[in-house]
């Protein structure tokens, strides 16, 4: 990991495009996500990958049989495997991050599929990079087929508020440097950063205190809509990440 300050004059990170969850089967998480107000609107044309949407929040559920993702799923349970960042120029951003010491993540795209560049993140997770497109253009149109009659859920959430990551003891300074110096996230204190973008999503890091060497996303927090009514979704038994509404 590089300790040099990233020069972002040639590109700009503009927020989160989507969060990718790993699950064995869609039915493990569909009702859970729908209870939070997410609607299943599309399915990948060739894979068991599904797109849930709520306002500007996109969650991709990956049930595909990719060996790397499967190994991660077996180790962690249902979990956040990737975050995708919107950029002013994804290719330029990716090239610059590799020059500065980022670890390239292997593309899993097939023929006629969108090739999304990215780097490896905490604990084997992925950080994807996509171009910020016009509001009338979707990155999902190539790989996904929109459902003819999706069952739309009442919206309960307005935006992602925060993400938190558990890291191995003693690794806090290194990972703070990774996000701050490599990706240009704003440091708020010794363990919290802000992801660039309109919503100002906060990313907090906390060391494991149980001598565990596992590193993973342990919480995603959402800001509730003003008309939000509290619900208690049925939590999947092997869900490794906490969903929190504030």
TrEMBL record:
It is an enzyme of class 1 (oxidoreductase). Its EC number is 1.13.11.27. Pfam families: Glyoxalase_5. One of its GO terms (molecular function) is 4-hydroxyphenylpyruvate dioxygenase activity. Residues 15-132 form the VOC domain. The keyword Nucleus does not apply. Keywords: Dioxygenase, Oxidoreductase, Pyruvate. It comes from the Bacteria. The keyword Oxidoreductase applies. PROSITE patterns: VOC. This is 4-hydroxyphenylpyruvate dioxygenase. It comes from Nitrincola nitratireducens. The gene is hpd_2.
């Amino acid at each position: 990991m590089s300790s040099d300050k990233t020069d972002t004059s040639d590109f700009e990170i503009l927020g989160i495009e989507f969060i990718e969850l790993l699950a064995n089967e869609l039915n493990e998480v569909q009702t859970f996500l729908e209870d939070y107000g997410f609607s299943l609107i599309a399915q990948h044309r060739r894979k068991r990958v599904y797109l849930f949407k709520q306002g500007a929040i996109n969650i991709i559920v990956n049930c595909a049989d990719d060996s790397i993702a499967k190994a991660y799923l077996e180790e962690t349970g249902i979990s956040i495997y990737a975050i995708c960042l919107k950029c002013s120029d994804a290719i330029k951003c990716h090239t610059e991050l590799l020059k500065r010491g980022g670890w390239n993540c292997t593309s899993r795209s097939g023929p006629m599929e969108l090739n999304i560049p990215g780097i490896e993140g905490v604990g084997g997770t992925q950080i994807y990079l996509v171009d910020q497109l016009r509001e009338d253009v979707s990155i999902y149109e190539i790989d996904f087929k929109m459902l003819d009659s999706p069952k739309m859920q009442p919206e309960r959430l307005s935006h992602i508020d925060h993400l938190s990551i558990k890291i191995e003891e003693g690794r806090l300074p290194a990972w703070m440097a990774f996000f701050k110096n490599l990706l240009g996230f704003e440091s708020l204190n010794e363990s919290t950063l802000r992801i660039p973008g309109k919503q100002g999503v906060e990313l907090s890091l906390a060391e494991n205190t149980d001598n565990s060497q596992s590193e993973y996303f342990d919480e995603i927090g959402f800001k509730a809509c003003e008309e939000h009514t509290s619900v208690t979704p049925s939590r999947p038994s092997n869900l490794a990440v906490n969903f929190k509404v504030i």
